[in-house]
Amino acid sequence: MFTKELLVDNSSGFHVRVATLVCKEAMKHKATIRLGKGGYDVDCKSCLDLLTLMAPKGTVLTLTVDGEGGKEAFDAIVSLFEHKFYEDEFADAARA
Questions:
Q1: C-alpha separations of 13 from 60, 85, 87 in Å
Q2: What is the pLDDT of residues 11-30, one digit of tens each?
């Protein structure tokens, strides 16, 4: 099992586009992938569940990954957070 606290550090927080990115990545893996805060956790393979986290910028979420291919799934989700969900690249493309 892999666990890590992750900071929502992109300017818009955890919104629909971000939830979709996380969900699409989670769906690529067999492992169970969950995000949570304050004792409440959700399945990352459900966009609707992810949106219930209501996590603005500055929120700390706990990622828990367990099962087959867990390390790869863990690394992929951590990377999305570390790259701020590619929000800067998305904004640049929208302005072009």
A1: 11, 10, 10
A2: 889 999 999 999 999 999 99
Q: What is the pLDDT of residues 47-87, one digit of tens each?
A: 999 999 999 999 999 999 999 999 999 999 999 999 999 88
What domain count does the chain have?
1
Give the up-direction half-sphere exposure of residue 13: CA atoms within 13 A in the CB hemisphere: 12
Q: Give the residue numbers annotated as catalytic, written as ranges.
A: 15
pTM of the model: 0.90
List CB contacts of 51: < 8 A, sequence separation 6 or more.
Answer: 14, 16, 19
- Spatial CB neighbours of 36, under 8 Å, sequence gap ≥ 6: 42, 53, 61, 62, 64
Alpha carbon distance 92, 96 (integer Å) = 6
The enclosing domain of 11 has a CATH number of: 3.30.1340.10
